[in-house]
Amino acid sequence: MEEAKQSFRQEYTDHVELSIFNCGHEHCRPGHTWGPGIRDHYLIHLVVAGQGRFLIEGKEYQLGPGDLFLVKPNQLVTYSADKEDPWEYYWVGFNGACANRLVQQTPFRADTPVHHGQDVPLLQQSLYNIYLARGLDPHSEAMMVGHLYIFMAHMIREAQALEPRSGNPSSQYVLNAIKYIQFYYSHDISIDDIASSVGVSRSHLYRVFMNNVGQSPIEYLTSYRIAEACHLLKTGKLSVAEVAVSVGFFDQFYFSRVFKKQMGVPPSRYAARSEKDSRE
């Protein structure tokens, strides 16, 4: 079959957290090769037909339908289509502040840059949706990034299916509770709310926190709120009352007492000292 290619390349984007560099679909000609070379972004290919070879850091992988392979920035790679049965694949290239965090949650690992998809039609459609949303206007960019998040969500789900939760269950409760605190610390949440969010009793949450963190849940929540308050006070943009509400304290005087107990000085003095330090 003759070479067939549909592709889109974006030279510049305003999206800092996650940016599409390129995407597309290609039925390669026999023996078609890219590399050896490096990319300045993450690149994921999904093989939907045919065969090919992926060479990375001295290791070679023979790939076929349903296989995905990942190229990270600055990795020396070569990939080529089979001469008798050249592969057909979809791809997306991306980067940004969130890119590495997302990739780390996928099935790809440093020693396994390939993965066989569990739901190939779904992954294929997700990649093709990125291409269908292509465009240089803000609406198209947002749609492309949205479809990329959906694709990565499918990959993360496959990773979770391959690696079910293991290890100490109590540590997982703590991690989930910490995530809840990080999302809702600015709200009027209680320890009962945190315990309910992870599906354990208040007393059990206390025990696992003490065993894994060395603090009680309320001590951790308070410390987290005060740490966030310190960041806000250093900016000098908010009053003490506004900082208090922003980190989940709805009584300014109580906030000041807790802050002084943890930091040794009242929040007003901490803010003044931070402003002085920034001027010197």
Describe the structure.
There is one protein chain. 46% of the residues lie in helices and 21% in strands. The chain has 280 residues and is α+β, with helices and mostly antiparallel strands. It has two domains: 4-162, Regulatory protein AraC (Jelly Rolls); 169-279, Arc Repressor Mutant, subunit A (Orthogonal Bundle), CATH 1.10.10. The strands form two sheets. Strands 1-2-9-4-7-10 form a six-stranded antiparallel beta sheet, with helices on one face. It has a four-stranded antiparallel beta sheet with strand order 3-8-5-6, with no helix packed on it. The longest helix is centred in the middle third of the chain and has 25 residues, at 138-162. It is elongated, with a radius of gyration of 25 Å.
Give structural attributes.
280 residues, alpha+beta, Jelly Rolls, Arc Repressor Mutant, subunit A, 2 domains, 6-stranded antiparallel β-sheet, 4-stranded antiparallel β-sheet, 10 helices, 10 strands, 21% strand
